[in-house]
Amino acid sequence: MTGINPFEVAKQQIDACAGILKLSPSVTTMLKTPMRELHVSLPVRMDDGSIRIFQGFRVQYNDARGPAKGGIRFHPDETIDTVRALSSWMTWKCALLDLPLGGGKGGIICNPKELSVGELERLSRAYIRAVFQFIGPERDVPAPDVYTTPQIMAWMMDEYSIISGKQQFGVITGKPLAIGGSPGRGDATARGGMFTIREAAKTLGIDLSKAKVAVQGYGNAGYHAARLCHELFGSEIVAICDSKGGVCCKVESEVGIDPEVAYTCKNQTGSVCNLPGMEYISNEELLELDVDILIPAAIENIITDKNAGKIKAKIVAELANGPTTPEADDILYKNGVHVIPDFLCNAGGVTVSYFEMVQNFYMYTWEEAEVRERLDKKMTAAYHSVLNTSREYKINMRQAAYVLAVERVVAAMKLRGWI
Ligand code: GLU
Predict the structure, then answer these.
(1) How far apart are CA 8 and CA 66, in angstroms?
(2) CATH of 188-340, one of 3.90.1640.30, 3.10.490.10, 3.40.50.720, 1.10.260.40
(3) How many Cβ atoms are within 10 Å of 134's Cβ, its own excluded?
(4) What atom in ligand 1 is closest to the CA of residue 86?
C-alpha cells in the first residue's frame, strides 16, 4: 500500500479534465461526487459456528447514461474511497466505450484466501440480501473484479432470483456460461487490452512479434494478458509477478516465460515466483525492466513519482484500475511513454459484460467469434478516438480519454435536466 487515496487521485483527474473542458464549478462538483452509496454490515456464520460481521459497500457513481455497472471486489484493504474511485472510473469507462451504462462499484472488506467455499458462498449471498433493493437489471448490475469469480456471480444471481421470485439472469454479469454467461467474458479484459496494444504498436511502429513484455499481476487479467501476447502476437514474456514476488527470464533466454507453465505453477505452489529456471525479481524491479510493453494488471498506485522516471517501456498498457498517479502520468508523458489508460485499456471486461446483458435480455447466445469481433470494433474505435483527441488537444492519453468520457456524461446530464 502506498498510502495514496485513489479517490483523491480520481478527483484530481476530474479537476484536470474540467479545466480542459472549462466546466462550471457546479458541474465539476457533481462529477466529483458519487450520486448514491450504500454501506452494509454482513453477519456470516463461519464454519466453526461463530458469527463474523463483514463490511460491504455499493456505490452508484453516476447513472446519467444508463443503469450503473461495475464489479464487486473482495479485498482486505477495501475502503469506501477505493470503491468510490473505482465507481468513478467505471462511469468514464462505460461512457468512453459508448455503452448505455453508468458507473458503479462494490466491495467487501475480507480476505477470500482465508475463507472456505461455504463461508464465501454465505458471504456472497449475505451481500446480495443487503443490497437487494439497491441493485437490479435496470438499476445497477454488478460483475466480477479483484478476487471475485464466475462462481461468486452464480451464487449472487441465484440469491437475487430467489428473493425476486423469478429468474433474473440480467442482474449480474460475468456468470458461468451454463447460467447466462457470455462466451468470451472470461478473458475479455485482457483480450480487449490486446486490441489497444495492437493499435498502439501500429501507432509507434513497434513489431509486436519481436517485443518484450513484462506483466505485473497474475490473476485473471495478468494471466490472460501474458497468454494472449504470446498467442496473438508472438511477443516474448520476459517477466511476471504476483503479490508474493516475481520471476524474470535469464538474459540469454530467447523464448521467454511460458504463460501456461507459469499459470500451473501459481495454482500448484501459490505463486509464479516459484517458477524453476528463472531469476527472482520484486514487483518494483519488474516495473523498471528494459521491455517494450509493461502491463500493470494488479492494483492501484504502483507507478508513482518515485519510479515513473525509471520506466523504460515504450507502451504502458494499464489492465489494472488506477495503477498510475497523476504525478507519474506527467513524468511518463514528458518521457514519451505511450500510456494506454486504464479505463480504455481494461474496458474489454465491461464491454463483454454489456454484451452479456444484451444476450440475457434477448434470451439468446452469440458465438464467441461474434463477441470477439464486436469487442475488437469497440476497443479499436475507442483507442483511435482517444489518440486523435490527445493529438488535437495536445494532452496525454488519459486526459484525452477523460475529455471524451466526461463530455458524454455531461451531455446526458444536461439532456436529462440535471444540470
Ligand atoms: N470489474 C471490471 C472492470 O473494472 C468489469 C466490470 C463489469 O463487467 O461490469 O471493468
Answers:
(1) 25
(2) 3.40.50.720
(3) 17
(4) 4
Distance 411 CA to ligand 1 centre (A): 23
**Beta strands 293-296 and 245-248: pairing type?**
unpaired
Q: Which of the following is catalytic: 105, 175, 212, 266?
A: 105
Residue 245's DSSP bridge partners are 242
How much distance in Å is there from the Cα of 255 to the middle of ligand 1?
Answer: 33
- Please give the helix or strand (H or E) that residue 130 lies within, else none: helix 117-131
Ligand 1 binding pocket (C-beta < 6 A) is 69-71, 93, 143, 145, 173-174, 321, 346, 349-350, 353
Among protein residues, the one whose CA lies closest to atom 7 of ligand 1: 350
Does the annotation count 105 as an active-site position? yes
* Domain edges within the chain: 36-170, 188-340
Query: Which CATH architecture does the domain made up of 36-170 adopt?
Result: 3-Layer(aba) Sandwich (3.40)
CATH topology match: 36-170 vs 188-340 = yes
pLDDT digits (tens, 9 = 90+) for 8-51: 999 999 999 999 999 999 999 999 999 999 999 999 999 999 99
Question: How would you classify residue 364: left for phi > 0, otherwise alpha for psi between -120 and 50, otherwise beta?
Answer: beta
Ligand 1: atom nearest CA of 347 is 10
In tens, the pLDDT along 172-228 reads 999 999 999 999 999 999 999 999 999 999 999 999 999 999 999 999 999 999 999
